[in-house]
Amino acid sequence: MTNKRPAVFLDRDGTLIVEHRDLGNPHLVQLEQDVVPALQLLQDAGFELIVVTNQSGIGRGHYRFLDYLMVQKRLMDLLAHYHITITTTYYCPHHPTHAKGHFRQTCHCRKPSPGMIEQGIREFDINRQRSWMVGDRLTDMGAAQSAGIPSILLLTGNGVHDAPHWPLVAPTLLVAVNQWILPSLHD
After folding, report:
1. Is 162 an annotated catalytic residue?
2. Domain 7-184, what fold?
3. Where are the domains of the chain?
4. Does the reported pTM lie above 0.85?
5. Which pLDDT belongs to residue 160?
6. DSSP 26
7. Residue 180: exposed, middle, or buried by beta-carbon count in 10 A (0-12, 13-18, 19+)?
8. Between the chain's N and C termini, which has fewer beta carbons within 10 Å?
9. Rounded distance, CA 79 to CA 58, Å?
């Protein structure tokens, strides 16, 4: 039996917080429905909570890295109020065609590539077989598939458009946690 801990890899925009295209304003950060009780359940069950987020708005010049950090700090502050700790956050500022300068590249970190998930698995000695990815886009699902972990598509954010294309779909993070993630601990 392994002592490695499981993780839930979480997309940020449209999954943890309400989707705003190219969010660079911390005053617009608003938690998605049922995120707090869902994360509390996961944390209490021993899951590492790891955020993996594409942030090509940095590379495309729509907001600065400092703006990204301020949005991230606002999210962390909101969650800390409920005693929720995010293990770490990985972000990708690249885009293969629309970014500027050195940000214009095809990289291994931009979802649907699995780079951010793989980095989390390595750095935190994560049990891949007991971990999950939750997001609101098929790119999130693709990253999980490439990393060899199951994934759940939420109907929040952009998920409503991709729902017909994915087998595990939930209206909120709390439903995903109760319907699939927590029961998987007993398999």
Report:
1. no
2. Rossmann fold (3.40.50)
3. 7-184
4. yes
5. 83
6. G
7. middle
8. N
9. 24
| Of 146, 48, 36, 148, nearest in space to 82 by CA | 36
Spot the catalytic one: 11, 67, 136, 140: 11
| Cα separation, 101 vs 123, whole angstroms | 29
Residue 77, number of CB atoms within 10 A of its CB: 11
pLDDT digits (tens, 9 = 90+) for 106-121: 999 999 999 999 999 9
Residue that the structure tokens 């700090």 belong to: 73
Q: Which helix (H) or strand (E) holds 169?
A: strand 169-170
Distance between CA atoms of 37 and 68, rounded to whole angstroms? 25
- Concerning whether 11 is annotated as a catalytic residue, the answer is yes
Catalytic residue among 13, 67, 136, 162: 13
Residues in the chain, overall count? 187
